Amino acid sequence: MMRALWTAASGMSAQQTKIDVISNNLANVNTTGFKKSRVDFQDLLYQTVKYAGTPSTLGAQVPTGIQIGHGVRTVATQRVFSQGMYQQTDNPLDVVIEGDGFFQVLLPDGGIRYTRDGAFKLDADGRITTSDGFPIEPEIVVPADSLELSIASDGTVTVMRPGSEEPERIGELQIVRFVNPGGLKSEGRNLFTATAASGEAVIGTPGLDGFGTLAQHFLEMSNVQVVEEMVNMIVAQRAYESNSKAIQASDEMLQAANNLRR
């Protein structure tokens, strides 16, 4: 059986994976804080028919060998943590991180997750939570009689209360960062979890030691560029078609060999 059949099949499979990733990027083009993914490929093993440097006649050496590849494989789907566009809102609970960092989210099981989605809400107890009702960490409770909520660039949260002329500080938004954010595991719902590859979360104050600053009344939109994804889709589609043509050509060659007569 011709190796080209299996080589081209691996190419089709790889391009199908790329289309799957592109589709997910496009589906989340309007998802707050979403970070697009890209696919990384590697070539497979090579069959060495002749080694480079093999002795030839009269003491000469073969300058180049003969190696035949066996296709391609998907080696990684990497998150790209470039900054997304900002959208201004009138909601005081909308917060964007300008630069490096993630918000911390406390799950019901006590686990900590991380997000770039700053579309926060208030629950029945006045806690600042995500859209799923998970409170941020550390917990911040907004008094029920608050008249105005302010979030400073360094994460300081203050409110104005009836009869008071000075804002009252009720907490501080902390953010974290990772040595390798690409190693974070996506869990859906705009949440990430730390892994051995990402390293431990480093907690810091916004605006200090390389951490990003916060901006109230803004949301970070998806960093997906529709035009770029459409071009990538066309490239993947043509590569898929090219590999299918290679399979068709190999099949026709096998058919010609089968039809030989003595």
TL;DR?
The chain is α+β, with helices and mostly antiparallel strands.
| Overall 3D form | elongated
Instruction: Give the domain tally.
Output: 2
User: Helix-strand pattern, N to C?
Assistant: HEEEEEEEEEEEEEEEEEEEH
Query: Largest sheet, order of strands side by side?
Result: 8-7-14-17
End-to-end C-alpha gap: 21 Å
Summarize the helices and strands and which ones pair or pack.
Blueprint: H1 3-27, E1 37-43, E2 46-50, E3 66-69, E4 72-79, E5 86-88, E6 95-98, E7 102-106, E8 112-115, E9 121-122, E10 128-129, E11 148-151, E12 156-160, E13 168-172, E14 175-177, E15 185-188, E16 191-193, E17 202-204, E18 213-216, E19 218-220, H2 226-258
Helix pairs in contact: 1-2
Task: Give structural notes.
The chain is of the alpha+beta class. It folds into two domains: about 5-80 and about 225-260, no CATH class; about 85-220, no CATH class. Helix content is about 20%, strand content about 30%. The protein has helices spanning about 5-25, 225-260; strands at about 35-45, 45-50, 65-70, 70-80, 85-90, 95-100, 100-105, 110-115, 120, 130, 150, 155-160, 170, 175, 185-190, 190-195, 200-205, 215, 220. A four-stranded antiparallel sheet has the order 8-7-14-17, with no helix packed on it. A three-stranded antiparallel sheet has the order 11-12-13, with no helix packed on it. A two-stranded antiparallel ribbon has the order 1-4. Helix 1 (about 5-25) runs antiparallel to helix 2 (about 225-260). The protein is elongated. The two termini are about 20 Å apart.
